[in-house]
Design brief:
Layout lengths: L13 H20 L5 H10 L4 H16 L18 H40 L2 H16 L1 H16 L3 H31 L1 H16 L2 H12 L3 H25 L3 H9 L4 H12 L1 H16 L2 H8 L4 H10 L3 H26 L12 H21 L15 H14 L1 H21 L1 H4 L11 H22 L1 H16 L6 H16 L1 H16 L3 H31 L1 H16 L6 H8 L3 H25 L3 H9 L4 H12 L1 H17 L1 H4 L7 H11 L2 H33 L3 H11 L2
Helix pairs in contact: 1-29, 2-34, 2-35, 3-23, 4-7, 4-9, 4-34, 5-6, 5-16, 5-17, 6-16, 7-8, 7-10, 7-13, 8-10, 8-34, 9-10, 9-33, 9-34, 10-13, 10-14, 13-16, 14-15, 15-16, 16-18, 19-22, 19-25, 21-22, 23-24, 23-34, 24-34, 25-26, 25-28, 25-31, 26-28, 27-28, 28-31, 29-30, 31-34, 33-34
């Protein structure tokens, strides 16, 4: 990590002296009481002492009572089927009326979008490859410089060499058509939501649903309305790509300086002139970030579009090779999507940086456009003079698929004993207890012992010891969380009484965001319960919880290392890019070949996708800790480890918590894909509904997944906001800090 001391002034600033005093008091408190805290955490711990302990005690009493009554009735363990509400039948009845009534209108939209999509595909496949390579090389050079331009040209030549040029152009046509449509829709919706409160109140929850609702769930009504074909994949891509654009437009317009608005009004500008001449230009960098994110979202949908569109593109190549269990071929095709995603990400991100607009020396935009036109025209002339250049010359195949297949085969045969040992160990000691509980799986054949009273007593003694350590380290909230985890491990998430689960989630939401969030949590949990998908929802929570626990533990550790070591950060960044952009289906192939189907394979696939946010948010949070705080720690003689442990990590907690949030979101988004390896959760219900054409069942399962995702997002976001307020130096936080430091 770069040493910031060389750039600090000789005399500490007033803020530096204030931070020095704060950290000195915190370190003195740590030495006197033996607790690892700093200023923000002291305020947080003071607040935690006022938590509604009586309510938590009541929830634990309810939990114990429901468990004690299991021998008399199973009503608390399994919600009675006769009490469920047939929401799916109501949805199906509505669709039986809606589809025949409005199908002609949607088929007209299908026809209107078919001809530009087919025309774009035809044009890109007709365009000679020298012109396409030159054009993309020039565009990427303009956005981010010669490194990205060279990488882009190398990728395009590799695509040509392995024979995937036509499929890549078909994929590119989907992105080039879906992204502009998503940008137009997102720009209009974002402006509307930023100007009218009623529109914002409708738009924000709609965006949450669009981003968390499983794609396969809403494919069923889309197929009924639009029919099978490439346009259905286009529609699905637009739905997924619109929310990032809307959010960035709203964010950009909210951040327009008030001085600019007042200056525009002083000049007599109308509301329309103010919007187009002041607000949108000022918000342009943020809006261009939305363009970047929409592009990435559209690319992530190429395989889903292939499933329902039947287009001969890269997504279909990945899917078809996956069905044949050809790992090497699927990785090669998936790597092309990764490379295209990296190129488009870097290019759009380069344009999003305001300084890039004039960063290429010596060439203004008009001059650069003229140069580009001249290069493309010259290339076209050369192609006309030498028609053989339209076809890429034959070169030795650079396809690594056979090597990858051979490597997978060798590992599967020669290391099967080790793979089975790893699978069985994780399953018996981690997954199965979380799912079914120790009381149901501890056997001499699995654990080497029986669940005797002595073993039970030893387990709960260990849980209570961990609770005491957690309470001393961070307060009663962490102690309660440890106790709940101990209960889940002993009784299993599937076996927990549903009244106690609903009460715990509602109380947690109340602590995080107050009465409104608690009411929303109660409604969401009751909907899942009375809809008859409680068991599947708990299976989803179990699998996502296990994946989140592993992903956050490993990912945050790697993020901490990356924040302290620039070389390690540079090494791990492209790996994270690959994991985040490679098609989700590709993750399933190696785990299925190594470990067959089951929860363990699904866990590994989810971890590979969900580990990235924890790494990135942890590194980002630690690297962006105030230099004044680090200076104050050094002034007190803290070692590098003490600065990391007592200053950087505590002050980066809001960003780290957002990493937890995104890890959970990524895990939930992977559930539908992991259902292909045999999990029996909400993702499996979506697949069953898609195969049977059951709109109601698919929508209920998708709505349940969306409810879990949105509820988790709100709770973690509220806790992160509280922690951010405590560390922001607000008057309330300052008063709590003074109280915490009082003798």
């Amino acid at each position: 990590m770069t040493d910031n001391a060389a750039y600090l002034p000789n005399e500490p600033s007033a803020h530096s002296r204030q931070m020095t005093g704060t950290i000195r008091r915190a370190l003195r408190k740590r030495e006197l009481k033996g607790a690892r805290i700093e200023a923000g955490l002291a305020a947080g711990r003071s607040q935690e002492r006022s938590l509604p302990a009586i309510l938590w005690a009541a929830v634990f009493v309810l939990f114990a009572a429901a468990l004690a009554m299991r021998s008399h009735t199973d009503i608390f363990a399994a919600y009675p089927q006769s009490w469920t509400v047939p929401f799916s039948d109501v949805i199906n009845a509505f669709m039986d009326w809606f589809v025949p009534t409005f199908k002609p209108m949607f088929r007209l939209v299908n026809a209107a979008l078919t001809w530009p999509m087919e025309g774009l595909q035809t044009f890109l496949n007709w365009l000679p490859w020298p012109i396409a390579v030159s054009l993309i090389g020039l565009i990427t050079y303009r956005s981010s410089g010669w490194r990205l331009s060279a990488f882009s040209v190398a990728v395009l030549l590799y695509i040509l060499a392995i024979g995937y040029w036509s499929e890549s152009m078909n994929t590119l046509s989907l992105v080039l058509l879906s992204v502009p449509l998503a940008i137009v829709i997102g720009l209009a919706a974002g402006i509307l939501a930023s100007k009218w409160p009623w529109a914002a109140a409708v738009t924000r929850p709609a965006l949450d649903v669009m981003q968390t609702f499983p794609t396969f769930a809403y494919l069923i009504p889309i197929l009924f309305l639009f029919g099978f074909g490439p346009v259905v994949g286009l529609i699905a891509s637009i739905i997924f790509a619109v929310p990032p654009m809307v959010r960035n437009v709203m964010l950009g317009l909210e951040r327009v300086p008030t001085e600019l608005l007042e200056a525009g009004r002083a000049c007599g500008a109308t509301n329309r002139q103010l919007l187009f001449l002041v607000e949108l230009p000022s918000a342009l960098p943020t809006i261009l970030v939305g363009v970047n994110q929409s592009t990435m979202a559209s690319l992530s949908m190429v395989i889903i579009a292939s499933v329902i569109g039947g287009t001969a593109d890269i997504g279909w190549e990945v899917l078809s090779t996956l069905i044949k269990a050809q790992f090497g071929q699927s990785v090669v095709a998936g790597a092309i999507i990764v490379a295209i995603a990296i190129i488009m990400d870097r290019a759009t991100a380069g344009f999003a940086e305001s300084q890039r607009w004039n960063s290429r020396p010596g060439l203004a935009w008009r001059s650069y456009a003229a140069v580009t036109a001249g290069v493309c025209g010259s290339t076209a002339l050369i192609v006309l003079l030498f028609p053989g250049l339209r076809e890429f010359p034959l070169v030795p195949q650079l396809n690594p698929a056979p090597i990858l297949n051979a490597a997978i085969g060798y590992i599967t045969v020669e290391m099967q004993y080790l793979l089975d040992g790893l699978k069985n160990t994780v399953s018996f000691f981690f997954l199965l207890p979380l799912r079914m509980g120790m009381e149901n799986i501890v056997r001499p054949s699995t654990w080497g012992t029986s669940l005797t009273p002595g073993v039970i007593l030893l387990f709960w003694a260990a849980v209570l010891l961990c609770c005491c350590l957690a309470q001393r380290l961070a307060g009663w909230s962490l102690a309660a969380a440890v106790f709940v985890l101990g209960g889940v491990y002993y009784y299993g998430l599937i076996g927990l009484p549903w009244p106690a689960v609903i009460a715990m989630v509602t109380l947690l939401a109340f602590q995080a965001g107050g009465k409104r969030l608690a009411a929303g949590a109660l409604v969401a949990m009751l909907f899942i319960l009375i809809a008859g998908v409680w068991k599947e929802a708990m299976m989803s929570v179990y699998l996502c919880g296990a994946a989140t626990l592993v992903s956050f533990t490993v990912g945050s550790s790697l993020g901490v290392i990356a924040s302290q070591n620039d070389r390690f950060s540079a090494f791990i960044r492209p790996i994270a890019d690959t994991l985040q952009t490679i098609p989700l289906f590709v993750f399933l192939i190696p785990v299925i070949m190594f470990f067959q189907v089951g929860d363990f394979s699904a866990l590994l696939a989810i971890i590979m996708y969900a580990i990235v946010p924890s790494m990135r948010y942890t590194e980002f949070g630690i690297r962006n800790v105030s230099a004044d705080a680090i200076e104050a720690g050094r002034a007190l003689g803290c070692t590098r480890l003490q600065i990391l442990r007592d200053i950087q990590i505590p002050m980066a907690l809001p960003e780290i918590m957002m990493g937890v949030n995104q890890t959970i979101m990524f895990s939930l988004s992977m559930l539908v894909v992991s259902a292909l390896v045999g999990t029996k959760d909400l993702g499996q219900l979506v697949y069953v509904a898609l195969a049977a054409g059951d709109v109601g069942k698919g929508m209920i399962a998708g709505a349940s997944m969306s409810a879990i995702a949105i509820l988790t997002d709100r709770i973690i976001h509220s806790f992160a906001q509280k922690k951010r307020d405590q560390l922001s130096g607000s008057p309330a936080a300052a008063r709590k800090l003074e109280e915490a430091d009082a003798p």
